[in-house]
Amino acid sequence: MDELIRTFIADADDCLASMEQALLLLESDPHDSELLNEVFRAVHTIKGNASCFNFTELTAFTHELEELLDRARSGETELVQSHFTQFLAAVDTIREMVDAAVGRRPSKATLTLRVGITKIDRLLDLTGELAIARGHVQQAVDESGANEKVLDALRELDRLAFELQEGVMNLRMVPVGPALRDFHRIVRDLGSAKGKRVDFTIDGEDVEIDLTVIELLKDPFTHMVRNAIDHGLETPEVREACGKSAAGQIRVTASHAAGGVVIKIGDDGAGIDESKLAERARQLGLEPDLNLIFEPGFSTAENVTDLSGRGVGMDVVRRNVESLGGTIAIDTTQGLGTTFTIRLPLTVAVISGFGVGVGDETYILPIDVIGECVELPAGTGSDDTTVINLRGEPLPCVRVRSLFAIEHGTPERESVVVVQHESMRAGIVVDKLLGSAQSVMKPMARMFRDVPGIAGSSILGNGRVALILDVPQILERVRRQ
Amino acid sequence: MQYLTFFIAGEEYAIGILRVTEIIECGAMTKVPSTPQWIRGVLNLRGAVVPVVDLAVKFGLDTTELTARTCVVVMEMQFGDERVAMGVMADAVNQVVELSDADIQPAPPFGPKVRVDYLLGMGRSGEKFVLLLDIDRVLAASEILAALEAPQQQELEIA
After folding, report:
1. B49 to chain A: which residues are within 8 Å by CB?
2. H-type helices in A103-244, by residue range?
3. What interface predicted TM-score (ipTM) does this complex get?
4. Is the pTM of this model over 0.80?
5. Rounded to a whole number, what is the distance in Å from the CA of B48 to chain A's nearest CA?
6. Per the CB < 8 Å rule, is A445 touching B50?
7. What is the pLDDT along chain B (159 residues), one digit of tens a residue?
8. Phi-psi region of A398 (alpha: psi -120 to 50; beta: other; left: phi over 0)
9. CA-to-CA distance for A481 and A474, rounded, in angstroms?
């Protein structure tokens, strides 16, 4: 591509970004002349550049926009909300025109991001392969008789390989701020479509998190923000009648906490109506519980809108969060608002895993759900599920062998891995305990993504694939029995 | 056009060589629970987790046995809006043949051990015929998903 065109694109992208940002700020303070000037300058720059390249359509469009803005600058036009909707739509139009003029495929930004992460993942794969190759060397050395010099060299290799893995892992970490910035626009557009005023703030923009986590969180996030605007926040009139500010607050906070990241999404809206929730629970024959909103098909919204309230949503949000090894909790106070707290591991690329053997297969459990391991008491029988006495407490247990229909004889002695997730505790019965190890997570082939009881896969030191157990889902199965 | 031929349960099949990304030795596979018998498991292909299918089982024949010659033909498949690598087990890979349109004729409605709609036709290679596999049909995403949904629901229900 021509160097000049490239500069034109870069300039246009910069201008559009600052224009969008300034418009969003200007909307809450339409009299800020500096912001208005910034918007004007951005449009003017794009127009100037476009006319240099003879992009006539773009020149004409930006010219007209410039006229409108000029009238606002002179005070001839009073800027109201509908203007901002128009201006923001114009940002999108200009973006499309720029793309069309230079023959660029839209959404190039995410494209480069994807390529980036693929390359990083390839590096991570290679570090895993390196560990396997190292294992082969070790084996060869063991077989041919150990030599101190070779062993020293191997240890040095270990250290380097470990550092390399750490380094590659770090490449995946990005601050949450830039990734969440798109939400300013989403919030603004949704709010104005619903006739609600929304102040959107992000705290902790610098907190770093795995790029994959951010990518996979975007959909759940959009859903929760939609919910907050659609059902949480009241209209300005209702808010003022309740003695609240006319504009509702949606606040996202990201922070570090013990080995992970906590992201909170809170609004100061109406909160969840507990009587409605209880009634809906009764209709479905369930005990009222706030966590019901995470169940499929449960929704207290009276009207189904195009935004949310179809009874699909929070269950998907929870599933997405859990598939990242995280948890989600809700806290709501009627009249004061709702806050969702999402806890996530720092990275999904590597988990601290604990290996267990069943038949010929090795499975991995995330180490943070494991409480302890005990031997299955003799004479427990070989039923699919059983209850054992763990220091006086009954512990429901399930056999992986039965869960996955593994056709392989039961060994004489079996072990129980005691796992805990939220308030639920159970034992998972396995043949062998293999010990803990850092495991590089691999996404499951797409077709297997919904296989029950499996959260993902990992590659073992011997090069074989091991499946990672989905402990929350297995516990859920046990609970339903 | 060039085709790769390989044996599954004694029959020689062929697929367009451009579909094949590589041929690997069939190493230890990891069985994925709640999946049909013809999905033999997943394999580590230089760090990527690749599903491996046993077409013999899918065609209603005996399970492919692992021998020194057993290999996995890895190919790119369209799965929804994604392209995924998938492996097909073969008792042995035979050769690469050049087949022109004139060498290819429709598959007879009876004779082959496999459903006719899984075949693109029969190719004449020297004295014998090879069956041209319509791999997009055999491993269609819809078919795989249907097979995955059917058994998995019950299998996790513990008696």
Report:
1. 442-445, 457, 459, 465
2. 108-144, 148-171, 176-180, 182-193, 211-227, 236-241
3. 0.85
4. no
5. 7
6. yes
7. 899 999 999 899 999 999 999 999 888 899 999 888 999 999 988 778 899 999 999 988 899 999 989 999 999 888 877 778 899 999 999 999 999 988 998 887 766 677 888 899 999 888 888 999 999 988 888 878 887 776 544 444 433
8. beta
9. 11
